[in-house]
Design a protein that fits this description.
Blueprint: H1 2-6, H2 11-21, H3 25-34, H4 39-50, E1 54-59, E2 72-77, E3 80-86
Antiparallel strand pairs: 1-3, 2-3
Helix pairs in contact: 2-3
């Protein structure tokens, strides 16, 4: 993940690095969008998700979905918002 912070000026390459290292490519794109392309925050979230400490939950209120209890909002996405949920180990 350290490659990410070194390539801030190359957003296409950067996005490729994020997508290549994360299992769910669409979810990685949502994280990047929700953080308003904040590479440091995106990197931190991806590292925690990959280590199993956090789960990303997209919530679409128009579809009747509710925000999970104790979830932290990352930011807005189209038609909803993206939340972080800490996993209990």
């Amino acid at each position: 993940m350290r490659q990410i912070s070194k390539r801030i000026n190359e957003s296409i390459t950067l996005m490729g690095v994020i997508y290549d290292s994360f299992k769910d490519k669409q979810l990685a794109g949502l994280i990047l969008y929700a953080t308003l392309h904040d590479m440091q925050k995106t990197e931190s979230i991806l590292e925690q998700v990959n280590s199993g400490n956090l789960k990303i939950v997209p919530v679409y209120p128009g579809m009747g979905e509710k925000v999970p209890k104790n979830a932290e909002c990352i930011g807005s996405i189209m038609d909803g918002a993206l939340y972080l949920l800490k996993l209990i180990n």
